[in-house]
Amino acid sequence: MDKLRRIFFWVVVSLTALFLLLPTLIIVPMSFTTTSTLEFPPVGFTMEWYGKVIGAPDWQAALMNSLVVAFAAAILATVIGTAAALALHANRFPGKPIVMGLLLSPMVTPVIVLAVGMYMVFSGWGLVATRLGLVFAHTVLAIPFVVVSVLASSRMVNPSLVPASLGLGAGHWFTFRRVTLPLIMPGVLSGAVFAFITSWDEVVIALFLADAQTRTVPIMIWNQVRTNLDPATAAVAAILIVLSALGVLLSYKFRESR
Amino acid sequence: MTATTNDRSVPVKAGSSRGFRLPPAFWLIVPSVLFLALFFVFPLLKLVAISLPDGSLEYYHQIFTTPVFLRVIGETFRVSLIVTVVTVAIAYPYAYAMAHGGRAVLLVLTIALLIPFWVSLLLRSFSWVVLLQNSGLVNDFLIATGLIDRPLRLIRTPFGVIIGMVHILLPYAVLPLYTVMKKIDLRLMEASSICGASWLRGFARVYFPLSLPGVMASAILAFTLALGFYITPALLGSPRDMMIAQMIAGQFNEQLNFGLGAALAVVLMVLTAIAFGLFGAVRAALQMRGRRTGEA
């Protein structure tokens, strides 16, 4: 009875792990099929779909948009978010919990609500169908991740180092550059990776703000999935899965290096 | 703001030009607050304003009296509730194995949890479309094993939406459960069995009550996130079983009824805030309990 329960338990847990992993990874082999529909197991082996995607002007344009927007949003969110985290870490001030709540709330706001709200406001400001509009929108989504990540790493810093540096005659800027920043760098970098991935994967807001010229890779995928499922889309998905795996490894590397 | 002067973690040079002392780092909060006020808070307030033309509640009245909207809100709750129950039920044994299965099990299960967590929601929904379509792997498998002789309709059904959402929410549900479970001392179960309780009785009377805060936290988190799902139901569901996020998008994209769409968005925002407030309350209660038992 006891043994039976144990077997049942581990079967359930293993099936859950497979349920988590398989649907995510199964797309990768499917992208190598020689058939024009998605098949599993894939029939034959070809890199044709990858060539087709990489050579297509609309995918290239979307890739360019995605890269520009994600880099810009990651930089903006990292600068603003790191500054905020430093201020929150070093100070106690009235209303601090409210400011903290404000900084983190984009994380829990339903993204469709943000999308339509930004659409209404940005259209009045001429930011719809521009890369800049997407950058601002994605920066909003990314700031909480940077704040959380930098706050976590500034808590690890010995609090007497900053006074020590100031006491030895260093200025505030010098202290920041030579003492604080190197110590919180793992948090800053992993926050930047989070911010980049947040923008890179974002689709709902982009659906509302982007047009045919400014559309990003996720918008292209969305359109493909809604119209025709072909192995080319699976090839894009496979590339993105590998890229996010690299991003995760990078972010964990930064965290470990602290 | 002068209250910051009593902070001692950052010493400041006395006597700035303004005549009061503030740690310089304090000003670093300003860009983030301004940025979010402009690009985050203002759009949300704008929605509230659009939903109340001349202060009239007509759109809210329309939402809560028209059967179509009530059905969509009901459907959103129904799907979110089913998804929450299924997700927590699957997450529970998984978190238990992570908490009490030893280092190797923890490592493997954590990797299995994090890989899908980091692949975008859109790609995972895409995977499920491919797997569940009529000529997809799931139907092929069921036909090959002789369980069915014709493909089942899995996509464009509530079933498809639920399975896709459970897959996406599972990591969120496992983590709070794991956090609580790893602090539970398994010797309590041994003690209950020495006292003559069966495993089931020990589990029901000892382990499960101790894990209950984790169950609550993970259920509320899953439910909160489920309420606002858009991509997954749009790709895997049928328009007939639409959830509130799809209805909001439709009001802006197709009906061009911005006032009504804004009112629906405000309703979703309030529902999410209530659900998330519950999450905060459970966590606060948990921390207080942890502190008390820690002192005892």
Polypeptide structure, described:
The complex is a heterodimer of chains A (258) and B (296). Chain A is mainly alpha-helical and 258 residues long. Chain A has one domain (57-256): MetI-like fold (Orthogonal Bundle), CATH 1.10.3720. Chain A has 12 helices and no strands. Chain A has helices spanning 2-25, 27-30, 48-55, 57-90, 96-104, 111-124, 131-154, 161-167, 172-201, 204-209, 217-227, 231-256. In chain A, helix 7 packs across helix 9. Chain A is globular. Chain B has 296 residues and is mostly helical. Chain B has a single domain (59-295), classed as MetI-like fold, CATH 1.10.3720.10. Helices cover 73% and strands 0% of the residues of chain B. Chain B is built from 12 helices and no strands. Chain B has helices spanning 29-51, 58-65, 67-100, 103-118, 121-132, 137-144, 158-181, 187-194, 199-227, 231-236, 244-253, 258-295. The two termini of chain B are 39 Å apart. The model of chain B is unreliable at 1-21 (pLDDT under 50). The interface between A and B is large, with 88 and 81 residues.
Offer a concise description of the structure.
Chain B: It is a multi-pass membrane protein. Chain A is an all-alpha fold. In chain A, 76% of the residues lie in helices and 0% in strands.
